[in-house]
Specification:
Blueprint lengths: L9 E4 L13 E4 L10 H17 L7 E10 L3 E9 H6 L6 H12 L11 E7 L4 E7 L10 E2 L2 E3 L13 H20 L10 E8 L5 E9 L4 H10 L8 E8 H5 L15 E2 L1 H8 L25 H12 L24 H16 L9 H35 L8 H20 L4 H6 L3 E5 L2 E6 L2 E6 L3 H15 L11 H5 L2 H10 L1 H4 L2 H11 L11
Parallel strand pairs: 1-12, 2-4, 5-10
Antiparallel strand pairs: 1-9, 3-4, 5-6, 5-8, 6-7, 6-11, 9-10, 13-14, 14-15
Length: 540
């Protein structure tokens, strides 16, 4: 199994002697002013525009206060550096297309790639049932992040659970972080808190696709078997029943044994750090995932301001010589130096550098100083985001009628639009074979939810109106076959597939689940693989 590095998060392993950490092993430094997100007026305008547009597309979105993760610090034990942010800022920074530009501006202005991003602290948990199965959820298609993907239950720690969060004591904040994990398991799966053990911390993940959005990963034990947990989940009485489509159970043997169905990579195969182990071995500060600013540590070591790869990028940009004004062709008879082919990241970096130079006041040159050029870069990036928001808003408004046609009676134009919608949905249904092929390719999935049709192509979900009743029946049939391919096998299935045993078919189906998992779910499994659970006692 080969998994691209971009599909895996950056991992910081916090295990101690291959065991997860209890709440008493962790501390919190809570300072809303010191660990707040850096701002400027142009960026705030871009955030506001992005939030309004997302709320129009998904009315279920609502703003709420979140803890902002500013980094990890070691003072004999891991210490979480936390401030305050909001879900609105998360949507406008980590979830927007220009997140990498914001990271480059943060590195240039503040020496911290995450300075301009919200980075709300997420929590996720792998739930181990009484019969040693791990529970996963299939995310609903309406969710804003990774719709339809397989994930572990999780969410965010909520400052609103504390009275006057901005004045909260660090101990109260730490209680909320650990208790929020159990609360998310109750709300997403329906399991009562009395059947859940304490939460044990395994590490920190940063999702590359979400601008380095951080999550704390935990493992929790459930006193119920998987059959009882599935029964409670299927009753649908829990608070967040609409956020997932179903449960998937995998045993630890299927994931971590020599005869595993899914090969979970080792930490040394990917971009992972074990700062606690490094400190014990070298008695020196580890190159951990530390992005916070402030005074020196208690042990006298200076606080790191950026990740190791961020420092490498800054050094590379600083040492890169400027190209001559006019470069002539290579001299005949001498071999010209090979030029590395530029990828998309190089082109974006070059374009950002060119725009920052163009925005610099004329005549300043080097005398303008790096601070002036950095501020120009940050303002230029924010202006680009505002411009892109305006262009996207115009494009959305111009195509709104085509995506969501009005079906008012007596309106010929709306009737024609509805007919076009009917034809497009029928064409989509015609392209999808009813059966396991639809579940394997996942090119287009059509599902009916509350009278609305959702067309999903890869990671893109398009919403349109529900046409006539006959097509609605086809959509329900397709959704049933897609969700249960092994039960609703097509009559024209290959002979080889029909001859396979039930065990072989189930094994092949589970082997493909790794590709359906979110990056955070994969990272959490990689952390759990390092945990020595034999003999470990979960306290309830």
């Amino acid at each position: 199994m080969d998994t691209a590095a971009s599909e895996l998060p950056h991992i910081v392993c916090l295990l101690r002697d291959s065991l997860p950490l209890e709440q008493d092993d962790v501390s919190v430094c809570f300072d809303p002013a010191r660990f707040a997100r850096k701002t400027n007026p142009a960026q705030e305008q871009a955030i506001d525009s992005q939030w309004r547009r997302q709320c129009r597309q998904n009315p279920r979105l609502f703003n709420g206060s979140k803890f902002r993760y500013a980094g990890l610090r070691w003072t004999g034990a891991p210490q979480l550096q936390l401030g305050l942010t909001s879900y609105r800022e998360h949507i406008g920074t980590n979830c927007r297309a220009g997140q990498r530009l914001l990271q480059e501006a943060g590195a240039a202005v503040h020496g911290d790639r995450q300075a301009f991003l919200a980075d709300p602290l997420g929590v996720g948990a792998l739930l181990l049932t009484a019969d040693n199965r791990l529970a996963f959820v299939r995310r609903a298609l309406w969710t804003g992040e990774y719709p339809g993907r397989l994930d572990r239950p999780g969410g965010h720690a909520e400052p609103d659970e504390l009275p006057r969060a901005e004045l909260a004591e660090p101990a109260a904040v730490l209680d909320e972080v650990f208790e929020s994990v159990r609360r998310e398991l109750r709300d997403e799966l329906g399991v009562p808190l009395t059947h859940l053990s304490r939460a044990y911390l395994t590490g920190v993940l940063r999702d590359r696709d979400m601008g380095g959005r951080p999550t704390l990963e935990f493992v929790v034990r459930c006193s119920l078997p998987s059959s009882e947990l599935e029964r409670i989940y299927n009753e649908g009485k829990h608070a967040e029943a609409d956020e997932s489509l179903g449960l998937v159970f995998l045993t630890r043997l299927e994931l971590f044994s020599d005869s595993c169905v899914i090969r979970v990579p080792e930490l040394d195969e990917v971009d992972a750090e074990c700062p606690g182990v490094a400190r014990e071995a070298a008695v020196a500060p580890a190159a951990a995932d530390v992005n916070c600013t402030g005074p020196e540590r208690d042990d006298g070591a200076a606080v790191h301001h950026c990740e190791e790869e961020q420092a490498g990028e800054a050094a590379a940009h600083a040492e890169e010589p400027k190209a001559p004004a006019a470069a002539g062709p290579p001299v005949r008879g001498k071999e010209a130096p090979k030029k590395r082919r530029r990828n998309k990241k190089d082109k974006k970096a070059a374009a950002a550098a060119a725009r920052s130079e163009a925005a610099q006041p004329a005549g300043t040159g080097e005398a303008g100083g790096p601070r002036l050029r950095s501020e120009s870069l940050a303002n230029n990036v924010s202006s680009q985001l505002v411009a892109s928001d305006a262009a996207l808003a115009d494009a959305t408004s111009s195509s709104a009628d085509a995506v969501l046609p009005s079906a008012e009676p007596g309106n010929p134009a709306s009737a024609a639009d509805a007919g076009d919608t009917q034809e497009s949905l029928e064409a989509a249904l015609a392209r999808v074979e009813l059966g396991s092929a639809a579940a394997e390719t996942d090119e287009i999935v059509v599902v009916q939810q509350n009278g609305v049709v959702l067309l999903k192509t890869g990671e893109q979900v398009t919403e349109t109106v529900m046409p006539t009743a006959p097509l609605s029946g086809q959509i329900e049939t397709l959704a049933e076959v897609v969700n249960n391919p092994e039960v609703n096998a097509p009559e024209g299935a290959d002979a080889a597939t029909a001859e396979k045993s039930v065990e072989e078919a189930e094994r092949e189906r589970k082997a493909k689940l790794w590709e359906e998992m979110t990056p955070a779910c994969r990272g959490s499994l990689m952390l759990l693989k390092q945990v020595q659970l034999k003999g470990f006692v979960f306290r309830f």
